[in-house]
Each structure stands twice: as structure tokens, then as C-alpha cells.
Amino acid sequence: MNMQSPSIAQRAALYLRVSTARQAEHDISIPDQRKQGEAYCATRGYQLVETFVEAGATATNDRRPEFQRMIEAGTTKPAPFDVVVVHSFSRFFRDHFELEFYVRKLAKNGVKLVSITQEMGDDPMHVMMRQIMALFDEYQSKENAKHVLRAMNENARQGFWNGALPPIGYRIVAAEQRGSKTKKKLEIDPLHADTVRLIYRLFLEGDGAKGPMGVKAIATYLNESRIFTRDGGRWGLAQIHAILTRTTYIGEHRFNTRSHKNREKKPENEIAIMAVPPLIERDTFDAVQARLKSRNPMVVPARVSSGPTLLTGICFCAKCGGAMTLRTGKGSAGGMYRYYTCSTKARQGKTGCEGRSIPMDKLDDLVADHLEKRLLQPERLATILSNLLDRRQERIERRREHLAELNRRITETDQRLNRLYDAIEAGVAALDDAGLKERIANLKAIRNQATADAERTQATLDGSGSNGITPTMIGTLSVAARESLRMEGGGYRRDHLRAFAQRIEVADDEVRIMGSQSDLLQSLVAASSVESAANGVRSSVLKWRARHDSNV
């Protein structure tokens, strides 16, 4: 007899993953994992509340969107599920230490990881077994990767291409057939080879009208001459620099130069050199490298500036969507000035984007002034947040009603248990009666589940502010939020400003500030609370994410 009741079922989440298209077709496919997972939940009496599907992602690291979404949900208080079900522990993680890290992280929030095919308990022996199995999975994954990489290195040393897009100026051709596999090599692509040679010539000699050009000047020259990249796009500084420094063009393509996991450079003895037809003379290539080293030019796109700048990272060009980055220059009087400019325009010139530049102080003041004098005024906040506050209050009232119902169920169950205990003490019922034992076990299970649900509901009420936020409180929050923007010296607090304005778009005639109503409310509450904490910033709360449900 099934003693598990739907009302007391533990809530489960399925995590499904395949790492390659081949595995999805021939191994444990997503539909297969889903079917087995749903059947497993049904037999265990679990209530399946959510399914996370990760197609084509390796389990050797945690750079998996659905995995991260599942971990974020499982570590939120209260968690929306009690159990995470996987087909095998290798679906979850192949790295032993990271597996244990996430198992413990979920366990701290009361969430358990179980495997359909490797089921085990929580006693020390079973924990050790899981660790041993994870070690074998990790070892097998690393051994497979090592053998594949060794084969690819040898393939490159023999002059065969391992796949991916070849460098511009080359194309892939079939070289020979080995069983069912077609070995491929690179040959010169006549359509784009001249573009590569032109770039080298412009860097060393110029275009005939003027002398040698820098990387930025070459990009501008190609774009203005309508000489496009291989995919029909415009040239950027990084692309030009890559062509000028790539040894492939002198016949030596370097394979396995960086670690796949962390992109760190590998030592020279691990790099495989693949012979390809040369496009550039070695003397020409060496001259280019010597000139690059002597000039030490800025050959990469300007990095986003951090530190005291307010808006880098959240400010974008309205025309092309590119980031507005900080630039500096000298004025006519010799002083330095700072301004935000469209990064696409900075890299590619006006042919890439005609977006404008704007003095840093002017844009900073414009945004902060708008937030302080318009968005954070009580009347404006009340208008923006009215519907959100109403919905929030409705949710709180529903949770209170649910909590009251759970408490009634706990009280009733305790009363029924007490009556059974009284019957046993009076000799009316026998303690060894199998039916009586089952009734007591079921009532205890109902009481325990109701208690757990009541605790989760109470925690949710506590976390959302059980008293709610009324329109009359908006005035107080408004004052605290406006004060939080300003520093004593008259400047602005960077983290506080970014809490209220997550995305800024700069057009020729207007500046648009965007964000989310729900996060605006969170930021208001946080700004009010940190005023009493020496103006500290709770960065985990002060974040107005880019969900465009409000345009302020």
C-alpha cells in the first residue's frame, strides 16, 4: 500500500543534460532522461514542479545557463523544490570537488541531490561511494579529453585541419579519404588572400598617397574603401591586429594555443604547428612584428573603464547598440577632458556608426539629475509602483490565508493523534495493530509536511516584508533614495545610481533611462536601509536589471 499522500509529497526538480549532438541522438537523449525522471518521481511519490533542460553543455564546468538557474532556485530561501533528480551524477558534474561543492550548497538549503541510476543514502558509506563514482566520472572525462586532444594535435602536425572556421585568406578542401573519414587541409582562398596582403602592405608602406598606417587607420581605410570582411561586415582593430600577428600567413598555423577551460596560454611544447601554404613572406612578417613592438600601439578595442566613472557598462549608443566607453583627450588650452563615445565609432570610424560623443560630466549630471528630481519624487514613484504594490499586497494576503490553513491542519492532525494515543492508553486500541500503526504514520507525515510548508510560507512572508509597503511609505523611501545618490563632496555614489538606472541609451536629441518596476522597489527599500548603516551598499539587492517593464 502506498503510504505517500499527494498532499505531503516532496517537491522535485528534474535536471536533464546531454553534452553533444551525437549523444542526443545515440545515447541518453533528453526525452529518455525526461521519461525516466518522471517515472522515478512517480514511484517515489515526488511532486514534479520544474524541469531544467541543458542541451549541448559539458558537465566539466558550471558555465551552463540551466544549471546556474537550477542552483540559484535551489539556494533561494525558501527553495521551490526539495529534491533535484538527475539520471546519473555525471549528468550533474564530472569534477569531483565541484560536485561535492554544489551538493553541499544545495544541502545547506535543505535540497537533496538524487540519481535515478546511482541511488544511495546519506550515511558515510554511501557518501564515500558517491565521491568515488564522481572521481571515476572526472577521471574518465579528463582521459577522454586528453586522448581527443592528443589525436587532434597529431592531426595538425600531419598538416590536416581539425575543423572550425579557417583564418581569412584560407579555405578548407578535402585532402584524402581514410576509411569513412575525410581528412581536410587548408588552401589559399584567392577571393580574400589579396585583402590579407593589402593589410600587410598598408601597415609597412601605406597606400601610396601617405606613409605606413597604424591599425586604426587600416580599419578606417578598408571600411571607407568598402573592402568588407569575409562575412560582409566591417573591420575592427582586433581583427586587423590578429591578421598582422598570425603565424598562419607564413605557413605555420599554431593549434592548441590556449586552454579550453580557462583560455590561459599553453607552453610552447604543447602547441602543435600545422604546415599551410604561406601567404606572406617571412621577412615581411618579421618586419611587421618589429614595427608593432617598437610602436606599441593601442591595437585592441578600448576596455570599459571602471573606478570612479558612473555609467560605463550601463551606457549604450542608441543608433547601433554599442557600449559608450570612456575616452580622454587634450583640450585647446592643454587641459585634459573626458567623454563617453560610441565604441563602434571609436573602432571603425563613422562608417561603423555615426553615434555621438558627450562630455562625461555632462552625461553624469544629466542622468543623476533626472533620477533625483523626477524618478525618485514621491508622486512619480507612486504612479510607477501603484500596480506593483497592489499585486504585492494581494500575494501577501494569499500567503497569510494559506499559512492560517496550514496551521489549522497542524492543529487538527495533533488532535487526531492525541485521540489515538488516548485510545491506546485506555486499552481501546492495541499498539501492535498494523492498521493503527499505519494511521499514526500517515498522520505524522501529514503534520510534518504541513509544518514544513508553514515554515516555508512564513519565511517567504518574512523575506517579502510581511507588513507590505504602502503608498504612504513611498515619501520616506523617496527621501532616503535621493539622499543615497549624493556624496558629501557633491559627487554621486556609483553603486546607488546604478541601482536605479540599469540601462542608458544616448541618442542625438535625447537620453533614455530604463529599468524594472520590481527591482526599483527593491532598490528603494535597500537605499532606505543602508542610510542607517554608514551609507554602505548592499550590492546583492541594489541592482535594477534590464527587464524593460518600465521606461523612466
From TrEMBL:
The active site is at residue 19. It comes from Bosea massiliensis. It comes from the Bacteria. PANTHER family: DNA RECOMBINASE-RELATED, DNA-INVERTASE FROM LAMBDOID PROPHAGE. Residues 11-163 form the Resolvase/invertase-type recombinase catalytic domain. Residues 389-460 form a coiled coil. Pfam families: Recombinase, Resolvase, Zn_ribbon_recom. SUPFAM superfamilies: Resolvase-like (SSF53041). This is Recombinase family protein. Residues 167-298 form the Recombinase domain. Keywords: Coiled coil, DNA integration, DNA recombination, DNA-binding.
